[in-house]
Every structure is written in C-alpha cells, then in structure tokens.
Write a structure and sequence with these properties.
Layout: H1 8-19, H2 28-41, H3 45-58, H4 62-78, H5 82-93, H6 100-116, H7 120-133, H8 137-152, H9 156-169, H10 175-190, H11 194-207, H12 211-235
Helix pairs in contact: 1-2, 2-3, 2-4, 3-4, 4-5, 5-6, 6-7, 6-8, 7-8, 8-9, 8-10, 9-10, 10-11, 10-12, 11-12
Length: 243
C-alpha cells in the first residue's frame, strides 16, 4: 500500500475516495481512521482532529468510537489543549462499553494531561491510584510518572526510591524503567552525587535498548562532563607571572 511505502499523500487520496461519498460503505470508518492518522503524522493536527471527530460521529462500532476518542484527545494534546483532551478521556473512563484496557489507558493519559497543566499533586494522585490497582504496563508507566513528579517537586531521595520500586516490581527491561533511571541520574546529580549520576548514565548508554533513551543519557552525561571541565578550568591558578 502507499502508506506502507510512506507515500502518505497518495495513501490519503485513496482513503479520501473511500470516505468522501455521501453513501457510507463498510470501509468508511477504516478510511477515516487511516486518513486521520496520516494527517497527524503530517503534523496537520486540525485536519486530523476533524477526521477523528467525523469518525466519532459516524462509526457504528463502539470500538471505533472509542478509538476516535483517543485520536481526538491525541490531537488536542498535540495542540496543547490539555483540558479538552482530559474531557474526552474522562468520557472514555465513564463509558460502560469501554474495555478495562481502554479505561486504564485513558486514566494514564489523564494523569499526563494533569502533569502538563502543572497540577503535580493531581497527577501524582491519579498515577498512584492506577499503580496501586494495576501491576501491568499501565502500573509501570504510572510509576515512571510518579518518579518524575517526585523529582520535579524536589523530593530527590523519594524519586530514587520510586525508581527502585519500579525496578523491583516491574523487572523487565522496559522503556519506562529506562526512562525512570534518567530521572535517577538527575536526582543523583541534584544531590551532589555526580559519580553515581555518571555511572547511571553510562549504564543507560551502554545497555538501554532504546535509541531516544541512549541519546538523552549521552546529552545529560555530556552536560555533566562539560560542567566539570569548566569547574576545573576556573580552579586552575593563573601562572602567567602577573600578580
């Protein structure tokens, strides 16, 4: 398909041919969903939002309507409208036909919206409730956010403890575990434990199976090393013979 070949404009043309006619057909919902996702990939969030909204209004299957709601929320978040996103996501959590998976996914995204709105206490409550009830991917993701929020609140030792709890409770080498240890490095550095911070970052660079985590770890390590070089340079006495 054109989409598989990354020829998104041609793929979009084909999907539009399916959903544009006034008479709906069995492929309308699929075409709307695919077109909305392409517009999102093209960073045309307004157009993507309209397509998701059309899908929400026309889909017969409850699953497609919930999928549209997640897409609508995704567009609002991309546009920085976290309150609108939260309103849509809260609708999913109260939908009696939504699966437990969809409800928990929506709750995590609500917590993220609270975080980006600056409501750290609200986000912490949301993520703590999710983690207490779900020892799965959503619990793990929530525990990462708990780690990040504690760091943001200046509770560095508590943030490290939260990351250790994540490591012990969710033992797989997951993305969220690796991301939590980026926070551990930040916490160590904030506490003055520069050697430990560098060790954590070097471990992530060498062992983390996620390119973006490796890149962030390199950037953090480079920043620490540069600050150390500047500090050493500032402490070197001036021996040019002038008093």
């Amino acid at each position: 398909s054109y989409k598989a070949l990354n020829r998104l404009d041609l793929a979009l043309r084909d999907y539009q041919a399916v959903y544009s006619p006034t008479v709906r057909n069995p492929f309308t919902s699929t075409a709307l969903l695919e077109a909305a996702e392409i517009k999102f990939e093209q960073l045309d969030y307004g157009a993507s939002l309209k397509l998701y909204q059309e899908l929400r209004a026309t889909a017969d299957a409850q699953q497609n309507r919930i999928q549209a709601d997640f897409g609508i929320a995704k567009c609002y978040k991309a546009m920085g409208d976290y309150r609108q996103a939260m309103a849509v996501l809260e609708g999913i959590t109260t939908n009696p036909e939504a699966t437990l998976y969809a409800v928990n996914k929506a709750k995590v995204e609500i917590g993220e919206c609270q975080y980006y709105l600056g409501d750290l206490d609200g986000a912490l409550r949301t993520f703590s409730e999710i983690e207490a009830e779900n020892k799965d991917q959503f619990g793990e993701q929530s525990q990462y956010w708990i780690t990040q929020i504690l760091y943001d609140k200046g509770q560095y030792e508590a943030a490290k403890d939260a990351a250790l709890y994540l490591k012990q409770t969710y033992p797989s080498d997951s993305y969220w575990r690796a991301k939590a240890f980026l926070v551990v490095a930040d916490a160590d550095y904030a506490l003055g434990n520069t050697f430990q911070a560098k060790g954590v970052l070097e471990s992530l660079i060498n062992e983390a199976p996620f390119d973006d985590i490796k890149q962030q770890a390199r950037e953090k390590l480079d920043k620490i090393l540069e600050e150390e070089r500047q500090a050493e340079g500032a402490s070197v006495p001036n021996n040019d013979g002038n008093n």
